[in-house]
Every structure is written in structure tokens, then in C-alpha cells.
Protein 1
Amino acid sequence: MIDYDDFNISSDKRILHHFTGLRDPLDHEANLNTLFLILESEVVIASESDLRNNGWGTTSYSIHLNDDKSLVDESLIRPKISCFTDIQPDLIDAHTKTYGYFGLSFPRHSLIKHGARPVIYIPTRQDDYFGVSGRAMLNDLDSIVRSYHPHTQEDGSHPRTMGRVVDDEKKAFKALASAFESHFLCYLKPFNSELSDNDDQYFLKEQEWRRLGNFKFKRNRDVMQIFVADGYAECVIKRYPQFHDRIVSLKAHQDNNDMGK
């Protein structure tokens, strides 16, 4: 076991991390159980109900065109994604405030091989509604999606296979819309650029990577290290003794408002 005070998380930039506590970062028991579920199933799950495709899940997303949905708050398009971080060492405390103290690290090359890549961060400001960037750009993209989406619904034709040149205008338009959504919109991440680096809503610091669908891995081959809350290392070692030298213990802060300072 390694105490975090003696560990430099950035010592190897070839690894990415997945933390399990987004729903409740301080529910250590639930987040430990999620960690065990991931280790046992060898799947980082994007959707609990989707283990099709031999465990990889489906690389799908949904578009929501209600008037109150937008790209600014990430509600217009909802992809099924597994998320990872390339977090910097001096920001790990702030990260645990939002995502909990339990997680795993995987080889970056393995994630890249299976389609993971960095999100596209869009900086916003309170005064950017009338420009050409930030919220103004995202609102314009909203309008574009609302314009074309009714014309790209399924019509019973066979879906285009990757790399195939289509032979008519309608199929080409649908292929363009699909690529725009799955390769671009699903990876957009707006963030308020006016916030302090220490603010837990300053998303740029997370250095997020995404993969559409689940991420399957081999436990003994791909798990580079395991993060646990202080006091839980022995629980993990008892079940997975092969990881005894790859466990990093993270100390919970009593005053969460001081995290990351």
C-alpha cells in the first residue's frame, strides 16, 4: 500500500483514472462496492442496463429537443459514456471532493485502442452570449441540431458501414449528421472560464477522457493502481492480494471546503 503523501500521481502520464463516487463522493461503502463490481466484472460500465455486445455495451446517445434542453448545460445530447481523467497531482484533493476516494488506473494506450479520447472543452463567460464563441457558439450549434434532426430520422434503410461512400444525397446527409453527433457533440464539455481553479465546477482541471459505451479490461493485466479512502486498503487487499503494492490510500479531508487549496 502507498500513502498518497508519498505518491506522485503524475509520475506516469501514460495512465488514466476512473473514480466511482460521482453519485455521493462520501459514501465510502457504496463506492467501495462499485469498485469491487468493476474489478469483478472487468467492465467500467457506462450504463448499468447495457451489457450487450459482449460487455462493451452500445455506442449510443440520445437527442432531446425540448425547449429547456441545450448544449450549454449538456442536456441536448446525452451519450452513454465511460469517463476517465488525466488529473494533475495538485488537484487530486479537489477531484475526490466530487468523484470520491475510490478508483482505478488503466493504461492510456489501452483506452485509446478502444476509442477513448479527450473531451473538447468549450470555455464560457457571462458576457459571451452575443459573440461568436462560448455560449453563443453552443447556442448556434443547438439551432443547427434542431434544424437538421427532424430530417435525419430512421427511414428503414440499412445503416451506413464505416468507411463506405454513400450513393445519394439523403444518405450522405444522415451520415454527416451521425458523424457530427457521435464524434463531436458527444465530446463537448462547456466550462465557466471565470471560476477559480479551485472551484469544483471548473471542469477544465479534470482533463476528462471519454469512451462511448463501456470499457472492458483484464483485471490482472490492465489495472495499474487502485485508489481507496484511508482505512479501506485492507478490504481490497483481502479480496485482491495481487494488488497489495498497487493500492494508493487517499486521506479524506474533514473540511471539504479546503480541498485543493
Protein 2
Amino acid sequence: MENCGFAFYLRRILVNEDTKAARWAQSNLSRTWTIESATGASGEATFLTPADGHTQAIIAERERTHGAFRENSKFAQDVKATMRNLPSWNRMASFQREALDMIAHKMTRILHGDPDHLDHWDDIAGYAERASSEIRERSARS
């Protein structure tokens, strides 16, 4: 079976390589993840599963920065449903719709969680920039 993409990269870095970067990744990931390799009918695979207690620590931290999952999820879905019912939605390219979905997602995290968490704001700027760049490239090709 030919290995490709992220699974191949992950296996190569975490399991097969003996480089400074691989040793660092193995050491740091092993604190929070269990790394396992297995060979089955479809070939070799590398599995990452959260180490004991780590998932709960992540959830607690995300609730602080992102807000309560249930409330945030409902609000995010309501905002996205509203966007999908507006006149321009169906005329937009998939990259435009995805950028707006992700911006809405980040906005709900700001409104339900920590409004000073820079990652949310940086992500919004990044998604807007990606969409803007795609529009510029599409215009240049026309």
C-alpha cells in the first residue's frame, strides 16, 4: 500500500525517523498522546490517542478560551444557518463559504469565551486573508 499525506508524514516522523526533530516530537507528543503503530489488512498505520487525563485538561482549557461547548455550538450553528439563507451564499465559491464558516466559528468562540484570546482574532484575519488572496488570484486569471 502506498503511503501518502499526513498519515505517511506522521508515521515517518514519529515512528521511523531518528532525527533531532523526530526525537523532539516523540518526546513532546508522548506527554500528551499515546503513539502506536499497527499493521492490518490495509497496511501499516500510526495511531495517536490522548494520554490519560489529557483530554479532560484540554476540554477545561478550551472552555476557558472558547466558552461552553453546548452553548457555543448552538450559537455557531444558528449563525451559519442564517448565512446559508442569505442571497449571496449560493453564488459564492467554496473557499468563500468556508472562510465565512470559519470566521463565524471563531466569532462565536470570542462571544462565548475569552475575547482577549489572540488566536481567535489571528485566525479570523487569516481566513479573511486567504479568501481575499483567492479572489485576487481569480480576478487576475480572468
